[in-house]
Amino acid sequence: MALKVALVQLEQSPVEGPEDKAKAAQRAADLLRSAPEADIYVLPELAPVGYNDAVFRNLQLLAEEELCEPGTCRHALAEVAKERRCFICYGVPGKQGESDFNIRQVVLDDTGSVVACYNKCHLADFGDGAESKYFKPGGRLCYFDCRGFRIGLLICADMRFSELCRELAVGRGCEILLQPAAFARDVSYASWQSFVECRALENQVYWAGVNYAGSYFGGSMWCPPWVDGSDKVVSRMGIEEQITVHEATKEELASTRESFRFLRQRKDRAAYGPGSSKRLYPHGAGLHAPGGGQVGQAGPGSSREDRRGWEEEPLRDPVRADAPLSEESVL
């Protein structure tokens, strides 16, 4: 079984108001209409609106509270999802209340319905980032099912927190992690690939890191669940606007996990066994299965069987030692 994942390295458009945002969304929609065939298209962080000072200064005009209203980014991109029978993962400033904003990523299915919505948990306040000046952090993890694959959502700086990636991959069974990003070529840029390789390999998942195009951005990357330096390598883009399509397969995932069985040696599970209330790292995760929570509920706007598996769960800190992960999460 295979899934085609398209990385959309998009040029930023000048956006300062609702009309600019509508034009940027339409430009992105037109680009996707002519793109190579894929099952899911992934746009950068806050794309197609953009990640820059002009956008941040005008959040009251650009943020979206209701995703389904005319004039929203979803309004333009949902038409493409229906036409091409594909999933689309895009970004937009989210609004909560009168003055709180989130960095938000939304996923549309092939009917144009919203099946996942994630607010960035870890804001970047290093390098060229000053996100907490404008945004509030989210507090929930998010994943969804796409044509037989479980996919987890992260946004840019979230990758620096191994516990979030591990919980999505091992705790929730995600096989692909998407990382929409606005990775400027500042002091933190050189570490991006190292983090991607580490997170993909330690969790044995595919990783899609999608950046903006341009001389100060670029370098979007696709990482397989194992890298050996020969036929299994990280694939990276240049700085130009382009779309590349990559294939994730169940066969490669199974082969990697069978050849390199270190996930089965994890001490936090193997030391006490599935279902045990004892944890080797009782304060290390910051995430856990909620009491009474059930994996498998349908996402908003979804009623079809293959949408099941979407779930958004609160982050809790410290982690509760009496709330172990379900047995099905053990690889």
A few lines on this structure:
By secondary structure, this protein is of the alpha/beta class. The protein contains 8 helices and 13 strands. Helix content is 22%, strand content 23%.
Written account of the structure:
This protein has a single domain, classed as Carbon-nitrogen hydrolase (Nitrilase/N-carbamoyl-D-aminoacid amidohydrolase, 4-Layer Sandwich). It is built from eight helices and 13 strands. The radius of gyration is 19 Å and the shape is globular. The chain is 22% helix and 23% strand. The chain is of the alpha/beta class. InterPro entries: C-N_Hydrolase, C-N_Hydrolase_sf. This is Nit2 protein.
CATH class descriptor? Alpha Beta
The strand count comes to 13
Percentage of residues in strands: 15-25%
CATH homologous superfamily label? Carbon-nitrogen hydrolase
At the third CATH level, what is the topology name? Nitrilase/N-carbamoyl-D-aminoacid amidohydrolase
- Largest beta sheet: strand ordering: 11-10-9-8-7-6-13
Calculate the mean pLDDT score and round it.
Answer: 82
Q: What is the annotated CATH architecture?
A: 4-Layer Sandwich
Low-confidence stretches: 270-331
Alpha carbon gap, first and last residue: 19 Å
Helix content: 10-25%
Instruction: Provide the structure class.
Output: alpha/beta
The coarse overall form would be: globular
Number of helices: 8
Order of helices and strands: EHEHHHEEEEEHEHEEEEHHE
Q: How many structural domains can be distinguished in the coordinates? A: 1
Question: What is Rg?
Answer: 19 Å
Largest sheet: 7 strands, mixed
